[in-house]
Amino acid sequence: MPDKRLRHGWLRALGEAEMPERIALRDGNYVHLRTWKHDFFAATGLYEGPSGRVVLKLGRTAGLMGFPASWIGRLLCDRELDVYRAVDDLPGVPKCLGRWGETGLVHIFVDGHPLQKREQVDDEFFPRLEQLINELHQRDIAYVDLEKRENILVDAEGRPSLIDFQISWRWPSDDAERRRGFRRLIPHGLGRYLLRRLQEGDRYHLLKHRRRHRPDTLTPEQIEASYQLGFWHRVHRRVSRPLTLLRRTALRVLTGRWRSLKQDGPEFMEQCAGASRPQQSVEDRST
Prior knowledge:
Low-confidence stretches: 262-269, 273-277, 279-287
Shape: globular
Distance between the termini: 41 Å
């Protein structure tokens, strides 16, 4: 049977191409070990070389319906690099080594595993994660994608790290910075409003994860608040869920695959090199 994935290469960021077998960085060549994810917008792979392991993320280069679409990859890469530069000194964020090619970036590999369903984390995990989120907010950044547990890593020491800033929203206070790139097309008031609303979303999802993993550290008021969706969260759900269902249905029809590797499954965990075994929490209620 022909590979449906390659028959519909337009669904993949690199089309029918795969991640490069090796990449050259300043200190030498790095060899491809595995590809973690390859979707419409980006492909992400693990590499090993002279200084250890790094992650290469390549934005879209494949065309779409006969039209060039590499501009999507360049735009998303530019935005993500912009965030990495703004948080370069923060613990809990992997060190970014810079751009690779037109649509790619490289960052240091975090030895750990994605936060798992029902995983029991230590008392300091969520306070540290909250501190990291607060640092992002103080630097005029909304993480935006905190709803996905796979973006929250538990490192080898049990500490939280955040990866994947592809859809993060940064709206700097500095006028000169806002005059560069796409921001010059957006009114300052609108950009600032979006920043505040998206930061509210970060705080909601942080509280929700904490309630699911460590409800014993929350007050009754915080637990109640973790179930209360704001207006914009309700709008987002009503819009995004039908679109997600449509996307997954199309993916299944075209490729036979319903979704990417489930992050709680053994296949996903096997791809997390050096992953420690997570402990389960006593409660995992869903909203």
